[in-house]
Amino acid sequence: MKRAAVIALLTLCIRLPFLADGPGGWDDVDFALGMQQYDLAAMQPHFPGYPVYMFVAFLFGRFIENPFLALSAISALAAALVVFPLHRTVRAYSGLRTADAVALLWSVAPLSFVLGTQPLSDSFGTLLSVLLVASSARVLDARLDERRRAMALLMSGVWLGLLYGVRVSYLAFGAVPLWAGWMYGRETRRWSDVGFAVLCSVLVSFFWSYAMAINVGSVNGLLKLALAFTGGHFSDWGGTYTGGSLGERLVYWIFRQWFAAGLGTPWPGQHWISWGIGLLLILSIGGWRLARKRGEIRVSGRIRELGLLFMWVVPYGLWAFFAQNADKPRHILPLLIPLLWAVASGLLALRRSGPLMIGMLACCMFIVSWTQVDEQRRTASPMAQLADYAASHLPASAVVYTYEEERVMRYKYPALETVRLRKWEDFQTSILSRHLQAESVFMTENVLEGFGRPEIWRYVRERARFNGNPWLYPTYHEIVLYEVRPEQKEAWQRLMQN
After folding, report:
1. Which residue ranges traverse the bilayer (predicted)?
2. What pairs with residue 418 in β-bridges?
3. Which residues, other chains included, contact 91 with Cβ-Cβ below 8 Å and sequence gap of 6+?
4. What span, in angstroms and rounded, lies between the C-alpha atoms of 306 and 219?
5. Looking at residue 297, what is its pLDDT?
6. CA pair distance 113, 148, nearest whole angstrom
C-alpha cells in the first residue's frame, strides 16, 4: 500500500501544474454553470444532471472560486485515487510487481493524464468504476470470510448506484457486480446478501433520481426531459465519426482512440517519441507469446476471476463502441486500465528486461502526455478562440450561427448574438424574422455542413480559422468561421426568401 500511496501522490503532483482554468467545450461550461445555479431544465448541466459528480463539485467549489479549476482539481484527485483500487485489484490477480507497473503507467498514460487535468466527469466516473471492480473482486476472494465478502458485495451495490449518478451511460458496468453476486450466491447460498446489495444499488439510484425530479418539478417532467434530450443527443447531436463501414469504425476506434489517444502510439499529429511507445507495444505482444510458450498462461480453474474481467471489459466496451461518440476517446477511459494491465504483463514476461521496458514506456508516455497538457496550459481551446475573435473583430450587428460552440461563446461573452441550430429551415426563419443584412451573418463550418446543401458554399467565404490539439479537443480541434461573400449579397437575399 505504501507503493500505491507514492504512485498516487506522483499522479496528483504531475497534474496540478496543468489544471485547466477556463472553458474548453460544451460539457465543462455546463458543469461550471451548474455549480453557479443547478438547473437541469436549463442544461446546467445537461441531462441526466450528473448529480453525484455535481455534489462533489459543489464541495470543491466552496474552497476553489474558479469553477473550471475546481472541476479540474476533482479530475486530478480522482485520477490519483484510482491508483489504490487499481493496485489492489491487479495485485490480487497478477502480483505486486505487475500492480506497481500498471499503477505507474496509469499515472502517465496520455488519456489518463489529459482527462485528469480537464473539468470533465470522466476521471471521477473512472474512480467509481474501478472501486466497483475492486469491491466485486473481493466478493470472489474465497480467502476472506463470508462477512467480509458480504460487505464487499454490499459496497459493490453502493458504488454502482453512485456510478450511475455520475453518468447513466455507465449502465453496462452493472454486469460486474451481477457476476460477482451470482458467483457468491452459488457458492454460499446466501442469496439474501445478494438481494441486499441490489437493494442498496436501487436505493442510491433512487435518491439521486428523486433529487433530479425535484429539480425539474416532477417525475413526469424528468421523463419528458430525458426523452427530449436523448432523442436530440443521438439523432442530431454528436458529430460522431462516420466511417464507410463497421470495420473502418472498429479500426479507427482501436488504433486512434485506444492506442494513440490512450497509450500515445503513432498517429498524425503525435509526438515523435510515440514511435518508441509503438515499439514497446510490439515487445509486449512478444512477451505474451513467450509466456504462452513457457506455459505461464493458465485459464482452467480461474473462471470466476476471468469472468469478472470479461464483465468489466466486454459489456461496456460494446456500449462504448456502438452507442458512444467514436470521436471522443474519453468514453474508453474506464477501460484504459485493462489495456495497461495487458501491456505491462507482456513486458514483464520478458523477465530481466521487463522492469527496464516498463520504465522506458512510462518515460515515453510522460513525454507525450506532457506535450499535450503543456499546450492546454499555454493556449486557449478553439471554441474559446472563436469567442474571443467574435467579441473583438465582428461588427456590433453580427449574429453568429453555431452549434456546440455557442455554449462557450455565450458563457464568455453574454452580449454576443449567437444562435445554435442545425436545420436549414430554422436558419432561414431566423434570418428573415430578424431582418438580418448579409454583412451581419456569420456561420461556423459545423452549421454549414449540417444544412446538407452543397450549393450554399458558393455564397460564403472563410473569415477566420481556429486550431487546437486534436488530443485535447477531439471533435472541435478546428473551427472555421464563415461570412457571406460581399459580391453575393443580392443572391444571398434571394436564397433566404426561397
Report:
1. 68-86, 98-117, 152-182, 194-214, 273-291, 303-326, 332-349, 356-373
2. 400
3. 98, 99
4. 40
5. 66
6. 34
What DSSP character marks residue 396? T
Q: How far apart are CA 496 and CA 437, in angstroms?
A: 11
How far does Cα 104 stand from its chain's mean position?
21
484 bridge partner residues: 460
pTM of the model: 0.93
Segment 378-416, tens digit of pLDDT: 999 999 999 999 999 999 899 999 988 999 999 999 999
Q: How confident is the model at residue 237 (pLDDT cuts 50, 70, 90)?
A: very low
What residues pair up with 399 in beta bridges, in sequence order? Answer: 417, 441
* Buried residues in 477-496 as b, exposed as e (16+ CB within 10 A): bebbbbbbeeeeeeebbebb
Phi, psi dihedrals of residue 25, rounded to the nearest 5°: -165, -175
Express each pLDDT in 136-185 by its tens digit: 999 998 888 888 999 999 999 999 999 999 988 899 999 999 999 999 99
**Number of neighbours of residue 410 by Cβ within 10 angstroms:** 18
Q: What is the β-pairing status of strands 460-467 and 478-484?
A: antiparallel
- Output the nine-digit C-alpha cell for 483: 461570412
Q: In angstroms, rounded to a whole number, what is the distance separating the alpha carbons of residues 469 and 400?
A: 24
